[in-house]
Amino acid sequence: MTVLDTLTSGSEPVGQRWVNLLTRHGVTEADAELIYALRCSLLHGYGPPKPSAGTDNRIVLLTDDRFTFAVDTSPDGVALVSVPIFCGRLVERISCAAWRGWDQTLVDTDILKTTRPPTPAAGA
């Protein structure tokens, strides 16, 4: 909420502020609404959100995949959310992109490699 309050106007409802913040930085509106639905469901202890208008009727599955997108909505009817990427880098990346007046030297949004490690050879 600190990032949201710092980077947006307080005159709109919080859900719209989240969606606007994300869409201004290249996130589709449907994905922004899904991210807000996920934020609310986790914050209030409900677990992943149920398929609804807020998730574009997609099933939200949480993964521990460190070599993917924060939110992958390419499979039909499913949204895969990488917890390590989503929690560890998404907010920092938005903050750095949105607010240039901050000292960004201690913010590292590229600490995780973006390629998968090689698969070990069979029998190795």
Strand percentage, roughly?
5-15%
Spans of 5+ residues with little confidence (pLDDT < 50)? none
> Structural class of the secondary structure composition?
alpha+beta
On the 0-100 scale, what is the average pLDDT? 77
In which order are the strands of the major sheet placed? 1-3-2
Main beta sheet strand tally, sense and closure:
3 strands, mixed
Give the count of helical stretches.
4
Q: What is the first-to-last residue Cα distance?
A: 48 Å
Write the layout of secondary structure elements.
Blueprint: H1 2-7, H2 14-23, H3 29-43, E1 59-63, E2 71-72, E3 78-82, H4 83-98
Parallel strand pairs: 1-3
Antiparallel strand pairs: 2-3
Question: How would you describe this protein?
Answer:
There is one protein chain. This protein is of the alpha+beta class and 124 residues long. It has one domain (2-98). The chain is built from four helices and three strands; from the N terminus they run αααβββα. The chain has a three-stranded mixed sheet with strand order 1-3-2. α2 (14-23) crosses α3. The longest helix is centred in the C-terminal third of the chain and has 16 residues, at 83-98. The model has no long low-confidence stretch (mean pLDDT 77).
